[in-house]
Amino acid sequence: GIFAVILLLYINSFLMKRRQKEIGLYNVLGMEKQHICRIFGWETLYSYFITMACGFGVGILLSKLFLLLLCKLTNVTHALSFYISGKGMGITLLLFAGIFLLLLVLNQFKIHFSHPVELLRGGNVGEKEPKSNWFLAILGLGLTGTGYYIALTTTSAVAAIKSFFIAVLLVIVGTYFLFIAGTIVLLKLLRKNKKFYYKTNHFTAVSGLLYRMKQNATGLASICVLATMVIVMISSTVSLNMNVNKIINQTYPHDYSIDIQSTNPKFFQNFLKSLKEKNTNHTFKNEHTTRYLSIQANEKGNNLEVPNQMEQYFNCKTYLFFLSAEDYTASTGIRLSLQDNETAVFDFTKKNRLPDTFSILDSSFKQTAALKTSPFASNISPTVMENAHVIVVKNHQILNKLQKEFQEIFGKSGNYLSALSYSYSFDTDGTDAEKVSFLKTIQMELSKECKASAVNSNGYSISSRQDGEKGFRNTYGGMLFLGLFLSILFLMATVLIIYYKQISEGYDDAKRFQIMQKVGMSQTEVKKSIHSQVLIVFFLPLAVAVLHMIVAFPYMTKLLRAMYLTDIPL
C-alpha cells in the first residue's frame, strides 16, 4: 500500500504539471473551478473503475500461473486449490479507493488555490533556485553513515538478523535526504569554487543539475532504493537455491542423525543395540558416533567463565564441546598425543579462536594443536557455529573431572546439564518413502526407551536427510518465489519512474536547448552540456545502489550464513 501511494503520487505530480495549461484554458473559457473539479472527479472515478477492472482481470489470469510456479519452486507435488479471495478483493478496492480519493483531494486543492494566468503559464514558469538545506544533508549523511557502520561492524549472524531492518531503514531514509538536500549542497559548493565553476562545461552543467536535482531528487532516490532492493533479493534468493544441494549435503551428510544427552552412561548403548535388533530388515552403514561434554561459557580474556545461574548460563555465547583423544580418534581416525594439561582445538570459524592458554571451571589448559577435522558428522547450527569450539583432552579421566566440576556449579539441577551427549549418524538403504517411515520407527523406539529408563524426553533429538531436504527446498523455493515476485514489482515501478522522469526532462531540455542557443552557445556545446547532465542524472542512482551493495555485502553474507549458506564466492 505504501509503495502504491508513493508511485501514484509521483505519476500524478507529473501529469498535473503537464495539464496546467489545459486547466487554465478551461477557466479562461468560462468554466468555474467547481466545474473543473467536477471534471477531475469523474476522471478519477473512471480511472479507478478501469484500473480495478484491469487489475483484477490480469491478477486472476496470472494467479494460476504464479501458483504453479510456486509449487514448482517449493517441490509441492499435489495440486493446490485455486480460489479468489473476496476479502482480499475488498481490501484492495478500499485501499485504492483511498489512494484515488487522496489524489483527487490534492488535485482539487491545487486547482482551488490557483489563478488562470498562473495555470496558462504553468508549463513555462521558471523555477526558483533550490535552497541549501544543510540540516537535511547532514542528517542524511549521518543516517546513511550509521547504517553503513552497523553493516560493517556487525560480527555475528544473530546480531545481523536483529539489526537488519534498522540498518535498512536508516540507509533508505538517509538516501532520500542525501538526494533531496545533499546533492543541492554539493552543487552549490562546487559553484562557489570559482576555478571549477567558471568554465563553459562546468558552468552550464552545474547550473542545469541544480534544477534537475530539485525536480527529480525524489525519483532518483526511489530508483536507487528500488535498484538496491532488486539486486539484494535476486542475488540472495538465487544464491540460496543454487547452493541448496550443497547446503543439504553439509547439514545432513548422513540419512539419520540422533543426539542423546543422558545421565545413564549405558542408555545410549542399550538403545542402539535394541534399535538394530528390532530392525534387522534395515541396513546400518557409514556409522559415526561421537561422545562429548557440552558447556556454554563467556570469554573474558583467557578465562572461560561458566555462570552459576540457569538464566545467565543459557545466555552464554561461547559453545564448548569437550571430548577425549580416544573418542576423537574413534570419530575421525586421527591420532593425538596429549599431556594432562594439553588440548587440541577445532575452531568452527577462523575469526573466533580460543586463546593459546585458557582456564575453565577449576582446570587450566594449554592449546598445543589446531585441528582441521571436526569430530561431528553433521554441521552445527550456523548461529552456534560462530562461537563454537571442539576441545580434545588427553583421556576420559580429565573429561570426567570437568564433568564433575560442571555438575557442582548447579548441584542436583546440574545433573542433566552435565550429562554426556552422544551423537550417532548412519545411512541406510531404501527409497525416500521407506526412509521417512523408518524415521517414525526410530522416534517411537527412542521415546519408549526414554520412558522405560526415566530419561528426560527433552534430552534427545532426531533428524533425517529426507525431512531436512524437504524443509530446505520448501523454504528456499518460497523465498525465491517471493524474491522474484517483488523484484518484478520493483522493476516495473523503476521503469515507470524512469519513463515519466525522462519525458519530464525531455520537455524541460527542449526549453533549455532554446535558451542556451539564444545566449550564444553553439548547438554542439548545448548538446554536450545537456548530454553530460543526462548521463550524471541517469547513472547517479545506479552508482549509489552499487555503493550500497558493496557496503552491504559482508552484512548479507552473515545473514545468509544464518540460513546455512557459507559459500561466499557464490
Could you please describe the fold and organization of this structure?
This protein has 570 residues and is of the alpha+beta class. It has three domains: 1-125, no CATH class; 130-253 and 464-570, no CATH class; 254-463, no CATH class. The chain has helices at residues 2-18, 20-28, 33-73, 86-112, 116-120, 134-153, 157-192, 194-197, 200-242, 244-251, 267-278, 310-314, 325-332, 382-385, 396-410, 414-417, 432-453, 465-518, 523-561, and strands at 256-262, 285-300, 303-305, 318-324, 342-347, 357-360, 363-370, 388-393, 420-427, 460-464. The chain has a seven-stranded mixed β-barrel. α9 runs antiparallel to α18 and α18 (465-518) packs antiparallel against α19. 27% of the residues are buried. The mean pLDDT is 82.
Name the poorly predicted regions: none
Average pLDDT figure: 82
Shape estimate = elongated
Number of strands: 10
H-E order: HHHHHHHHHHEHEEHEHEEEHEHHEHEHH
How far do the termini sit from each other? 34 Å
What structural category characterises the helix and strand content? alpha+beta
Q: For the largest beta sheet, what order do the strands appear in spatially?
A: 2-3-6-7-5-8-4
Characterize the biggest β-sheet: 7 strands, mixed, barrel
